Amino acid sequence: MKKTSFGGFLITFFIVKAINLSTGFSYNIFLEKLNQFNLFVDLAIWILVYGVVSLALSKFVNRRKDIS
């Protein structure tokens, strides 16, 4: 379980970076002043992508367990 959660986080990180680069969105809460809208958008992207990746990984891992 730990391997899939760490792998899921890494996959999420790279997908979020790709989304941010393609859209031109960048927000760093530690370097910029607090902007609630940008913080909300950034967190929403992370949550949505992590949810999709977690769901996909859980389906893949469950299918793999059924095969073996």
What would you say this structure looks like, in words?
This protein has 68 residues and is mostly helical. It has one domain. The mean pLDDT is 85. Helix 1 (2-23) crosses helix 2. The protein has 2 helices and no strands. The chain has helices at 2-23, 36-67. The chain crosses the membrane at residues 37-57.
How is this structure best summarized?
It contains two helices and no strands. By secondary structure, the protein is mainly α.
Q: How would you summarize the topology of this molecule?
A:
Layout: H1 2-23, H2 36-67
Overview features:
68 residues, mainly alpha, transmembrane, membrane, transmembrane helix
Query: What is the mean pLDDT?
Result: 85
Number of domains: 1
Shape: elongated
Q: Give me the secondary-structure category.
A: mainly alpha
Number of helices: 2
Strand content: under 5%
How many angstroms separate the termini?
A: 17 Å
- Range of helix content: over 70%
* Poorly predicted parts: none
Radius of gyration: 15 Å
Main beta sheet: none
Number of strands: 0
Elements, N to C (H/E) = HH
Keywords: Membrane, Transmembrane, Transmembrane helix
Transmembrane segments: 37-57
